[in-house]
Structures are given as C-alpha cells and as structure tokens.
C-alpha cells in the first residue's frame, strides 16, 4: 500500500509516521518548505513523546518520506489523506475549510488512476459532500471515492492512541473504497480493534460528538468543583464516586482551569454553529463553551484572592503554560487567559514550562521567562500550577519556601495534598477541595 498524507501538522505527522510503522509506504506533503527541510534533516517540528524515534526508524526503513511536491506524492497512491488545519473562522466560529477544499482541488488535478481521498482533518457534517463535488468537477465518478476517517488522538499519548485505539471510524460507501481502507488498517483488524464503517456524514458527526461530550464532562466536573468549595465537599472524591459507575467512567473528570488545546475549543464551537445552521441547537454544548471561557478568567481571580485580593506589585510564579502536559501545544491553553489577566491586575509574572516556552513567547507579552521551576519561584509571593507536568508534582517544599517571598500556592490541577501542604507551612489553595480557598 502507498498513501500520501497532505499536511505535516500534528495529525498529519503522527498519522503518517504510524501508518509507516504499519508497513505502508507514506509520503508526507506540506507547502511549508522550511518544515519539510527540517523533517528531512531529522528535526521534528512538534513535541510528542516517541515521535522522533518513530520517524527516524521509518525514514531509515524507506517507508516514510517528506516532500513539497504534491504531484509526486499523489502519483500512484492508493489513498490520499487530507490532514490540514481547520481552525475556527474569525467572526462566527465555524470551521474554516479553505485548506481542505484547496487540498481536494489540488489532489484532483494530479491524481492518476482510482484514488481514495480521505478527510483526516476534523470537518463539519457535509464537508465530504463538498469535497466530492470539487473533485467531481475535474475527475469522473469512477476515478475516486471520498471517505471520512476522523482521528481520535490525545496529545501526549498520540502514538499509543493510533497503534492501540479504542475504535477506528470510517465513513465510506462502496466496497472498493472500504477495501482500500481495510488494507490500510489491516494491522488493527488483526488485533481485533473495533472498526466501525458508517455513512460519511455519520463519521463526520461522530468526531464532533465525541469531543463535545468529553468537553462537557470536563466542564461538568469543574462546576461541581465550585459547588464542592461552597458546601465543604471534596471534588476528587465526588469524581471517584461517580466515575466508578460504569455508565459514567472516570476519565475526563479531573477538575481544573478549563479545557484547551487544538480540538475541544474549536470543535465545541463548530458543532454549536452547525447545529444552529440546521435549526437544531444544542443548548448543552452552547453552555459548555460559555462556562469554559468564563472559568479561565476566574482562575486569575482565584490567584488574586490568594494574594489578598490585590495583584499590584505581586510576583506570581506560573508553572506550566501548555494546555496539558507532554505537549508543546499552547492553543487555547488556560494560561493564555490567566497570564494576561494577572499582568493586567498589576502582577509581575515569572513563568516556566518544560516544552511550551518557545510557543508561549510568541503568544504572551510582559512575562519574565525562566529556565526552570525554581528560578521562577525566586522572590515570588505566590506560585500557581497551571499545567500538571510531572516535574511539578514533587517540588522540594523547603527549597520553595527559601526561594519565595511568601509560601503561597494556588494548585489549579490538584496535584498536592492539602493537609501535607498546610503542615509544610504553605497557604494552599486548590480546586474543589478543603483548603481550596
């Protein structure tokens, strides 16, 4: 099998590398010459654990390559995956499908022989129909098929998710296209991974429904955390108590500063707009979007309260900037709302993140950037843990007290024990637990 992967962003690069590990010949294409040059020089433009080793291994084996030449990549390919960005469109929140449609048109112009065109990008219901129309203006109906194959990769564990997924969803009609997809995913068939073949529109909606449901779980437990603080309950025990119910499950029930990243914010908003367009509004998701945006700003207020209600002249150490650990992704991270609010309130922010510093510097102004957690703590009046990187889970508390102007911690990820922090001499504020502020 031979495939072309259009787009070497997060989804395209991870998917291309993993397909090559399956034994498929993969050519990844991108218009960004500098990115392709870096990849050809062995440099990985994103941080994802083990991705560098996977790419190196399969490039050396001759199964994975990178190019800017779309025509060469598409020629002879059994399938062409479109894995380009679909950011929220400014002004209305709809997914911007410009890159998807441009890619479809370019593929149609250069493909030779029967080709399965697969949308790997997250796209609204009906996008595959439009791709089919675009390609059909250039090619005959018997020369191609358009398939939806949404990804369900978690940043930080994407390779494991791809190799051992809960399921694979393939929106394809027609035995010929289905057979191509079966061959591509053959290693997963062999280990009896659930492969769900559906109509194309159904596959497109499954992706949005999955992400918005998970975002709703996060938002639900965050609001329960607020209630816990008011009534004196412990949100972690509440989460465990409901998570043990098999109908609910324990995942995505970790209270925190709100969801972010490349998927949940734009996908919840896109589903809201799609539902409104079809006259079937989803009020639950509309509320989730509103509550999540408000929550990020509330976290800055929580830090201010730990400083006595006034941030002016205070030094705040911010540990963690990415939206989650084990990624360098800053997109819609809670820190992008929290840090500017702290600075606006008059605080001096000293920040550190293990992997997200380069991107953070492009997105945040007025921050004192530090080379490590303890450097950020020097002279700080309060430390706020925004992202739960492992290296922040066992900080030396005595050293922290020596470095800080006052021993105050705002733990937005609940990674420390309130009783132990109090016993160590810290004023400790967390989310939805005793001593939670």
Walk me through the structure.
The structure is a single chain. The protein has 18 helices and 14 strands. The chain is of the alpha/beta class. The protein folds into two domains: 197 residues, NAD(P)-binding Rossmann-like Domain (Rossmann fold, 3-Layer(aba) Sandwich), CATH 3.40.50.720; 194 residues, NAD(P)-binding Rossmann-like Domain (Rossmann fold, 3-Layer(aba) Sandwich), CATH 3.40.50.720. Strands 3-2-1-4-5-6 form a six-stranded parallel beta sheet, with helices on both faces. Strands 11-10-9-12-13-14 form a six-stranded parallel beta sheet. β9, α14 and β10 form a beta-alpha-beta unit. It starts with a strand and ends in an 8-residue tail after the last strand. The mean pLDDT is 96.
Categorize the overall geometry: elongated
The secondary-structure class comes to alpha/beta
Q: What would you give as the CATH superfamily of the largest domain?
A: NAD(P)-binding Rossmann-like Domain
| CATH T-level topology of the largest domain | Rossmann fold
Domain module tally: 2
**Count of strand segments:** 14
With strands numbered from the N-terminus, the spatial order across the biggest sheet is 3-2-1-4-5-6
Beta-strand content: 5-15%
Distance N to C terminus: 58 Å
Q: Count the DSSP helices.
A: 18
In CATH terms, what is the architecture of the largest domain? 3-Layer(aba) Sandwich
Which runs of at least 5 residues are low in confidence (pLDDT < 50)? none
Helix percent reads 40-55%
- Main beta-sheet strand count, sense and barrel state: 6 strands, parallel
- What is the CATH class of the largest domain? Alpha Beta
Estimate the mean pLDDT confidence.
Answer: 96
Radius of gyration: 23 Å
